[in-house]
Design brief:
Elements lengths: L3 H28 L2 E2 L7 E6 L2 E11 L2 E6 L4 E5 L3 E8 L7 H12 L3 E5 L3 E6 L5 H19 L11 E6 L2 H9 L11 E4 L4 E5 L9 H16 L13 H10 L3 H4 L13 H11 L7 H7 L3 H4 L1 H18 L1 H12 L9 H12 L3 H13 L4
Parallel strand pairs: 8-9, 9-11
Antiparallel strand pairs: 1-3, 2-3, 2-6, 3-4, 4-5, 7-8, 10-11
Helix pairs in contact: 3-5, 5-6, 6-11, 8-11, 11-12, 11-14, 12-13
Length: 374
């Protein structure tokens, strides 16, 4: 039989090891801008500004501690203010449904209901249609089928995916403002990478005939799906042209609800294709792909055109060069945690997979799209 003093000694030793690991991490960070190691899979608890946080450490920098909390939130914390680390278990455990539901009801109040499906937790007013669960699960199946068919490696989410349904535009605005987001008039939804939540204005009450609602659900829901199945990394978000190009691609009914084995023409996004063709009709627009790769600036300069060109590039690579595109995705996800790449580094990352003949690559995309008849 092990004595109580021996048990206390073992616990003290484990705690000392965790403190030592944290100390080594922080000491290393003082000499390097980034600690690029595989973080432990532990579930830890620590104090932060009077709050007890449980989660898994993902990355450390000189000033930042990045942690995934048990409710799926991605936390970027001031490293110096995180104290009293202790290990809770060898493996990370997300919150169970009962604990998550209790936390959500404390946040939103008892006028909301919290229901679960296979992959989602839907948070909505009591009066809201239950069709949202069906639509979200359909989205998950469609995205998984489409990209698995093209050889993209996917994994099961670590968390149930939270979807918050707002019954009115006012409640949508108020809920968004709580997370520092101010949606423009006409916006129907958005995905927040840090909270891992999708927020939707219940315009169509889940009615499958609501085309605008379906587009928004497909676009924002794709973001949430992508950041949870290993398609994108939440710690290392992809370039904007990749994230928005793929989400825009998924708006097409032929992708969102179509047969992945149909011809490419069935998966075209007519509105994005029209904008792209008008901009490229003269054949004089050059360097557009390189501009998207080097910087996210095109999305501030001309959003409509940037979205159309991002869709065009994503559609071409997914349909015609999925193997290379999957390889490029792996390189994006394998970046060092918290890395911020300069334009030259973004270009090198892309060129390593696709080469540097930008003129030829842009011509192939334009030629491919010119042959499609949606």
């Amino acid at each position: 039989m092990v004595s109580k003093s021996a048990i206390r000694a073992q616990r003290t030793l484990r705690a000392a090891r965790l403190v030592l690991l944290a100390s080594l991490i922080l000491a290393t960070c003082r000499q390097r801008p980034l600690l690029a190691v595989s973080p432990p899979l532990w579930l830890i608890e620590f104090s932060y500004r009077g709050e007890q946080i449980q989660g898994r450490p993902l990355a450390w920098s000189q000033s930042t501690l990045c942690v995934i909390a048990r409710d799926g939130r991605l936390l970027y914390l001031d490293r110096e203010k995180a104290t009293n680390f202790r290990k809770l278990s060898d493996g990370f455990r997300p919150l169970d449904f009962s604990s998550f539901k209790a936390a959500v009801l404390r946040e939103f109040g008892n006028d909301f209901s919290v229901t679960a499906s296979t992959h989602y937790i839907v948070i909505s007013p009591q009066s809201t249609s239950n069709r949202w669960q069906e639509r979200l699960e359909e989205l998950f199946r469609s995205a998984s089928r489409y990209f698995a068919t093209r050889g993209f490696p996917l994994q099961q989410p670590d968390f149930s995916l939270p979807a918050i349904i707002c019954p009115t535009w006012k409640s949508f605005q108020e809920t968004a403002a709580r997370f520092g987001v101010h949606p423009p008039p006409g916006a129907l939804g958005y995905y927040d990478r840090l909270s891992n939540r999708i927020f939707l204005w219940d315009v169509g009450s889940g009615d499958p005939r609501d085309r605008d609602g379906i587009n928004v659900l497909a676009h924002e829901g794709f973001h949430q799906w992508a950041f949870n199945v290993g398609f994108h990394s939440r710690v290392n978000p992809p370039p904007l042209w990749v994230a928005e190009g793929m989400a825009t691609l998924f708006e097409s009914a032929g992708v969102y609800a179509g047969n992945p084995y149909d011809s490419a023409a069935h998966r075209v996004h007519p509105a994005r294709l029209a904008v792209f063709r008008i901009a490229h009709a003269s054949g004089q627009r050059s360097s557009w792909l390189r501009d998207l790769v080097l910087s996210d600036a095109p999305f501030q300069q001309n959003p409509a055109l940037a979205y159309a060109e991002a869709w065009a590039a994503a559609f071409y690579f997914t349909e015609r060069e999925p193997g290379k595109f999957s390889e490029y995705f792996r390189s994006l996800n394998d970046r060092e945690p918290l890395a911020r790449l300069a334009p030259r580094e973004r270009e090198a990352e892309f060129a390593k997979v696709f080469g540097t003949d930008w003129v030829n690559l842009e011509s192939k995309i334009v030629r491919f799209l010119s042959m499609l008849k949606p």
